[in-house]
Amino acid sequence: MSQQQVDEETPLLPVQQKKARTPLPWRQFSIILFLQLAEPLTSQVISPFAPQLIRDIGITDGDETRVGYYVGLMHSLFFATQALTVLHWSRISDHIGRKPVILTGLFGLSVSMYCFGLSRTFSGLVLSRALNGALNGNIGVIKSMMVELTDSTNLAQAYAYMPIAWSSGGAIGPLIGGSLSRPADRFPNIFGHLQFMKTYPYFLACAVPATFSAVAWVVTFLFLQETVPTRVTLWHLLKGKSHEHSTSLKVPVTSTGSTDSLNTDDITRRAKVDDSKPLPLRSLLIPKVIIAAGNYAALSFLDIAFRAVQPVFFATPVELGGLGLDPPRIGNILAIYGVINGLFQIFFFADLHDRFGSKIIYSVSMAAGIPMILTLPILNAVARVHGLSLTVWAIVGLQLVLSMILNLAYSCIFIYIAAASPNQASLGATNGIAQLGVSIARTIGPATATSTFSFSIQNPHQAWIVYYYLIALVCMGICTSLLLPRQLWKKNY
Predict the structure, then answer these.
(1) CA torsion sign, 321 to 323 to 327 to 330?
(2) Would you say 228 and 93 are in contact if contact means Cβ atoms under 8 Å apart?
(3) Which H or E run includes 311?
(4) Handedness of CA 13, 14, 18, 22 (dihedral sign)
(5) For residue range 378-434, what is the model confidence (pLDDT) as tens digits?
(6) End-to-end CA distance of the chain
(7) Sign of CA dihedral 381, 385, 388, 390
């Protein structure tokens, strides 16, 4: 194989620059993974008890057909308010640093979850849920920190660990919500004599992720080290003098004065870049940023739509077009998927990425969405004839494998977003733009997908409408992927 062919298959590394993978800075990197647990815990903990909570507060007046509407509203409200503020928080982090913004986000998550558990009216639930999303801009900021802690040789390895945090939080959150809601009824010997637990039956379930976020705040304050080389005070930022009063730091320093094991030369190089000042928003709306952000939004729209339909399909009776599984089996399937997906990403993504590059893996991952969706009607057809046979479980296994392949696309698009940033100082804002589109997609994705599924099962002649809808989302993702370059955009930092 010629040297040119090698370069084409590993587009991240030019011929002269290909080198061994740099070890990850595990002390700081492990803290970031720990912090990522806070959001999936707080967002998913309400899933098991949300329908009963809506019934208890009486907003539906006993009308069961309206329960799903209000539950969906609560889920979407988090992403809707996040969409309004995430770009703001990401841009602020470019000026005052990542750490203050992360501390603010964790504080918001903690307070809002305590408030949610104490809410006894629908307006209280809405306000606390809105606070949850509005104050939490940590997703884009944490991704920016991951880029700043790594280089081109180990960025793919770093992103491969991200699904572990999300999968773990997404599995533990519902487990907490289902086990600790209404504790006075479930554990009368322990909580039956506590009037507080009877008055606020969902406080304990909400208090666990709220307390975790508080602990994460303490860990961040004490041990997380700043990665932005330019630091300004809030006063200077408000006065519009951030560039005049900025201070270049060669090595980030924690609140305790200790230094990290980051590459000092790398930090120094970043601080010396001529265009290291954050760019205005208009200057970030360039083709490569829009292409990367658009692909991230398309991928997230497809993924969250499928994730919303999948458990509903599993629970729907076979005669109505589903699989007729009970909640424990559904939970086991999703938990198994979460564990296997995280392990697969950790052990295989970085090596696959080094061999094939971002574009090939992303394109194959998006294409895997079509057979993944087709397994749904095939499962129902086989179940109608053979029941829950071994063939059905084999197809479920195939569906999970295809889902894992689809999830490889996330790490790839994160790398594209990092490369799209015009300079190091605008990395937070670039991630904020990308996260804005994703938040909008996640606001409307679940509601449209589950509504389409409900409509499609009402009449046998329209049973495939939901699958046409999901396949259309795959095609949209494939079309947007064609705009991604074969080789990553060259970084200017």
Answers:
(1) negative
(2) yes
(3) helix 287-315
(4) negative
(5) 999 999 888 888 899 999 999 999 999 999 999 899 889 988 988 877 888 888 888
(6) 32
(7) negative
